[in-house]
Design brief:
WD40, single chain, five-stranded antiparallel beta sheet, Neuraminidase, 25 strands, mainly beta
Length: 292
């Protein structure tokens, strides 16, 4: 049965949170369930908005970063510690960059100075570097994840809340799926399923799983701690999230409760917001504030 949740969620036209966050990268191991981190570093160290990281492969991290006072699509290369801009500068700002699964294009949400918010595809090749084309002309995409090269599952603006849809980039078909969704949408490693968050009756976020290739039924996983909006997957059975300066995991094959695995307060950070894991599970990128 389709899961519908009704309620109100204040959503600005930008739908993007912190004003001066930084992106931090660390190596991670989880051998025999023992969570260890190393080589923790700030990879942006930049005035302005640096957030919304996503790994395009094990060596490349995309993110929305500030350059010359404007938010652009930035690409950080782990092997040589360099950062490059992907898109040609526009009058608007680019957010939520993600690589298409099976080509070199990069998708991103563009928020124009007119208030228009649309999903675009950007070329990432030496010949047409940074040129763009609009996707889904009439849909105000806020957050999304690719299911394959043609389909995304996305939270879109709908009045004063977000609503989840399944959209086909090739045909333009949009299937409404859920009202009052959250912003955290992720592919599950070694799986054809996607996880998403939905706002429950108490105003907190629940995590659900859906396989849009199968019956499109949703299955409840767990509730995120109060006030937490984001999650990600370390592997096919372990979820991760950040709260304050700490990391927590939820293990399907363990206690099935949120357990603290790392305290990062010694790195002088706080207010972890977003978090993502490299495809091989060896690196974590997260967004946080630096304590003054």
């Amino acid at each position: 049965m389709r899961l519908l949740f009704l309620g109100l969620l204040a959503v600005s036209s930008a739908v993007f949170g912190q004003t001066n966050p930084e992106i931090f990268l660390m190596e991670v191991s989880n051998d025999l369930g023992e969570f260890k981190i190393s080589n923790f570093r700030n990879i942006t160290n930049n005035e302005g908005y640096d957030s919304q990281p996503s790994f395009s492969d094990n060596n490349t991290l995309l993110f929305a970063g500030t350059e010359n006072g404007q938010t652009e699509i930035m690409s950080y290369y782990l092997k040589n510690n360099t950062t490059l801009r992907i898109n040609k500068p526009t009058s608007g700002g680019e957010y939520s960059p993600q690589k298409f699964p099976n080509n070199n294009e990069i998708a991103a949400v563009r928020l124009d100075t007119t208030g228009l918010q649309r999903l675009y595809a950007y070329k990432n090749s030496t010949i047409e570097q940074g040129t763009s084309r609009i996707l889904l002309n009439n849909l105000e995409v806020a957050y999304y994840a690719f299911h394959d090269n043609n389909r995304i599952i996305a939270s879109v603006l709908g009045g004063n809340q977000l609503n989840l849809v399944i959209a086909n980039l090739k045909t333009g078909e949009v299937m409404p799926y859920l009202e009052n969704s959250g912003r955290s949408i992720h592919n599950i490693p070694n799986s054809t399923s996607v996880s998403y968050t939905a706002v429950n009756e108490d105003g907190n976020n629940d995590v659900f799983i859906v396989d849009i290739d199968d019956d499109k039924e949703s299955y409840f996983v767990c509730q995120l701690p109060i006030g937490i909006e984001d999650h990600c997957w370390l592997n096919e059975s372990i979820l991760l999230l950040g709260s304050g300066a700490r990391l927590y995991k939820y293990d399907f094959y363990g206690k099935q409760e949120w357990v603290e695995v790392a305290n990062l307060s010694n790195y002088n950070i706080s207010e972890i917001s977003r978090i993502t894991v490299s495809p091989n599970g060896k690196n974590i990128a997260l967004v946080a504030n630096i304590n003054n």
